[in-house]
Amino acid sequence: MKYPSTTYKKADxxxxxxxxxxxxxxxxxxxxxxSLDTPLARAVKELAVHVQSLLGTTVFMSFAQKTVDALWxxxxxxxxxxxxxxxxxxxxxxxxxxxxxxxxxxxxxxTLSNAKIARKPEEEVFxxxxxxxxxxxxxxxxxxxxxxPAQILNVCPQGMDKSEEQALRYCAGYxxxxxxxxxxxxxxxxxxxxxxxxxxxxxxGKSSHDADSLLDYTTKWIDVQNRGGLFKINDNVFILFKMxxxxxxxxxxxxxxxxxxxxxxxxxxxxxxxxxxRLLSRWNSVCNxxxxxxxxxLRTEVFKCFIKMRCESFIKVYLHIRKxxxxxxxxxxxxxxxxxxxxxxx
Length: 346
Description:
Blueprint: H1 10-15, H2 17-28, H3 39-53, H4 58-75, H5 85-99, H6 102-114, H7 121-147, H8 162-172, H9 174-184, H10 190-200, H11 220-225, H12 235-251, H13 257-260, H14 265-274, H15 277-286, H16 292-326, H17 331-334, H18 338-342
């Protein structure tokens, strides 16, 4: 794939150099690696606190500027070139050479010394490496997003066939089942109790749309698998999940594979779902009178749970249905596929 015409310039990166550094420092306090209660993790966070308090000073502004200048020399090589695996590999190789260079560490040590920040070698190295990784990723991500915004295309997905709709309805029931089970354990929590009521209302039989429904064919696989314990969603909720599936399909396309490998797919899909007004309108229709704040929190949990389930289990069910349509169901296949879903970490 040929890299498009360049629109992101070094001057653009220079303007936000301080922002890249500030975001990288802030990530220290959110990163799981530094949430461990170990002497080194505590020391790194303590050093980060001192650095954060001095980010607006000349010494750290200079460090941010020089770091972005050095990182720009690495990322600029991809502009105008064929966007190949070799090019990306070479780029990351150059970055690792830079981050391990003695000159890079010496500049960081001079910065801390000029800022009169006491530290030990271990924490200064750990903090530096984390900052460089985050700043490089932010610079690269900003460059790609500016130069190649159309690489993640909202492709109009093909319509779902009946087997896919059956698989979706079967799997979708696991989302309210799992979340309701979680919230039922939160005794004495009024918000959790409200969530339980909402999720319970999603079951089949709670909606007037289910009588002689045009969507009856979508329950065929559930009827084959159900031994009485499955959470069967009603038609209104199924339409919600179908719209969520359409959002996934519009993004996860062959044309997007090269771009998606550098993305956090869950975050990307969640952002797209949260920004889809049709989907949000459908959400409101299945959420009854849940207040705005509570609705948005539950919505995020439902979207995240669906995205994870979609990536892990949907394809398994779909392949089983396709196999079932072509030959007799084996004894092994008759076992509920929900067991596959329950294997995920809770």
